């Protein structure tokens, strides 16, 4: 071994050069790839039960898990991130565009609970906390907005049906009035008298008689129209009650239950 030491000493500069090159390369890589900071927040989905009665006021865990899976796929979508960027302009000012959020935000649903974990990557710890919390709060607003659109569509459809039935009712009422106007009632009356001459010096006497005839003509279609009108009124009342019971403002079923904090980055 000792006979190789002179050769090793002679070419030691090559080893030192390789070490120096490796150090320089590592520094360049670190500078080109700045450190990434990861933070997470958590959403819960409280899906309302589809049952009727008192149980309708409770949440449905099975339905909530299904909706959580659906929401997890929607979190990094362009439509959701566009709304979040509009709600929180500070994200764009810090350099986190819609495209950045779509690439660096992930959402993972829990398999046993109706929760979604949102994980984000940012350039600084403070930015990671900001992005994680803004995405979580923004997605809650996104869910509420989608629910409001569905409610407005449903109310619009009911109002359109109601307007249609009310037009039918108005037209049917006009038809009934026209039919009644063509119904004729004829009354004939007459009278005649007789004179009985009296004896000489005695006044005569008069007697009279009268008769009348009444003719009424009715259209049997009026009964049908009246029954149709009653059915239309019942439908209109039912639609009005359904529309009155429907809320004007929708509430989303997603909420933030855990926000990101600096110690957790």
Mind explaining what this structure looks like?
It contains 8 helices and 6 strands, in the order H-H-E-H-H-H-H-E-E-H-E-E-H-E. The longest helix is centred in the middle third of the chain and has 57 residues, at about 125-180. A hairpin with a 5-residue loop joins strand 2 and strand 3. Helices cover about 55% and strands about 20% of the residues. Helix 4 crosses helix 6. Residues about 50-55 have low confidence and may be disordered. The strands form 2 sheets. The chain has a 4-stranded antiparallel sheet. It has a two-stranded antiparallel sheet with strand order 4-5. The protein is an alpha+beta fold and about 260 residues long. The protein is rod-shaped.
Regions with little confidence, pLDDT below 50 for 5+ residues: 52-57
Mean pLDDT over the residues? 82
Helix-residue proportion: 40-55%
Main beta-sheet annotation: 4 strands, antiparallel
Question: Helices and strands in order, then pairings?
Answer:
Layout: H1 5-10, H2 12-32, E1 37-45, H3 61-74, H4 78-87, H5 90-93, H6 98-104, E2 105-109, E3 115-122, H7 125-181, E4 185-196, E5 205-216, H8 221-245, E6 254-258
Antiparallel strand pairs: 1-3, 1-6, 2-3, 4-5
Gist of the model:
This protein is an alpha+beta fold and 265 residues long.
Fill in the keyword field for this structure.
two-stranded antiparallel sheet, 8 helices, 6 strands
């Amino acid at each position: 071994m000792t006979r190789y030491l002179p050769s090793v000493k002679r070419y030691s500069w090559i080893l030192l050069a390789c070490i120096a090159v490796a150090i320089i390369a590592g520094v360049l890589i670190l500078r080109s790839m700045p450190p990434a900071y990861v933070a997470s927040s958590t959403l819960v989905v409280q899906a309302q039960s589809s049952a009727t009665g008192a149980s309708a006021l409770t949440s449905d865990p099975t339905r909530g898990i299904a909706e959580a899976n659906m929401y997890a796929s929607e979190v990094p979508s362009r439509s959701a991130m566009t709304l979040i960027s509009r709600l929180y302009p500070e994200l764009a000012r810090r350099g986190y565009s819609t495209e950045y959020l779509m690439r660096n935000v992930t959402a993972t649903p829990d398999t046993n609970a109706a929760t979604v974990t949102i994980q984000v990557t940012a350039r600084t710890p403070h930015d990671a906390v900001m992005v994680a919390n803004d995405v979580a709060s923004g997605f809650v607003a996104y869910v509420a907005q989608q629910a409001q659109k569905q409610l407005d569509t449903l109310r619009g459809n009911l109002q359109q049906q109601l307007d249609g039935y009310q037009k039918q009712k108005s037209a049917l009422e006009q038809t009934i009035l026209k039919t009644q106007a063509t119904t004729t009632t004829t009354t004939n009356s007459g009278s005649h008298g007789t004179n009985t001459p009296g004896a000489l010096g005695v006044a005569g006497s008069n007697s009279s008689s009268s008769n009348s005839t009444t003719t009424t003509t009715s259209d049997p279609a009026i009964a049908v129209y009246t029954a149709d009108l009653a059915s239309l009124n019942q439908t209109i009342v039912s639609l009005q009650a359904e529309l009155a019971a429907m809320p004007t403002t929708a509430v989303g079923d997603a909420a933030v239950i855990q926000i990101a904090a600096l110690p957790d980055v």
